Task: inverse folding
DNA sequence: AAGCTGACTCGCT
DNA sequence: GAGCGAGCCAGCT
């Protein structure tokens, strides 16, 4: 099975998350309005094709790690300097928010002002 | 076609 | 903050 355009868009964004920074599934979904992207779709895309991107930088909106992958994620995050207490991380302070400009650069047509 | 599932969220308690 | 229920929607059986 090949990644759908939406999956590609999700992967492109995740691949651009700076080391040591975090984003939530919902954040990514909000960045891709034209892909009918929902938090669940983001999770699904990472689940299938996340092997090549830093998927551990994507956490739940509450700043907790997804239970299924919490252990791996914790190891990766700590390795790059992110503090993890239990299943929680400081999403509010480490959240990464790319500007519309950066968004355009990583995913063509991600943000459309004219509509 | 109908039903289930899931690396999610949000509003309420 | 933690627990619960309901909503969500593409993909699979």
Result:
């Amino acid at each position: 099975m090949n990644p759908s355009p939406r999956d590609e868009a999700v992967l492109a964004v995740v691949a651009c998350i700076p080391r040591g920074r975090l984003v939530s599934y919902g954040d990514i979904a909000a960045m891709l309005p034209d892909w009918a992207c929902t938090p669940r779709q983001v999770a699904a895309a990472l689940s299938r094709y996340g092997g090549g991107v830093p998927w551990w930088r994507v956490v739940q909106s509450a700043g907790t790690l997804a239970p299924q992958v919490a252990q791996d994620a914790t190891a990766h995050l700590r390795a790059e300097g992110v503090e993890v207490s239990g299943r929680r991380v400081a999403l509010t302070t480490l959240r990464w928010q790319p500007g519309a400009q950066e968004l355009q650069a990583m995913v063509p047509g991600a943000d459309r002002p004219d509509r």
About this structure: Residues 4, 6, 36, 38-41, 44, 62 of chain A lie near DNA strand C (CB under 10 Å from a C1').
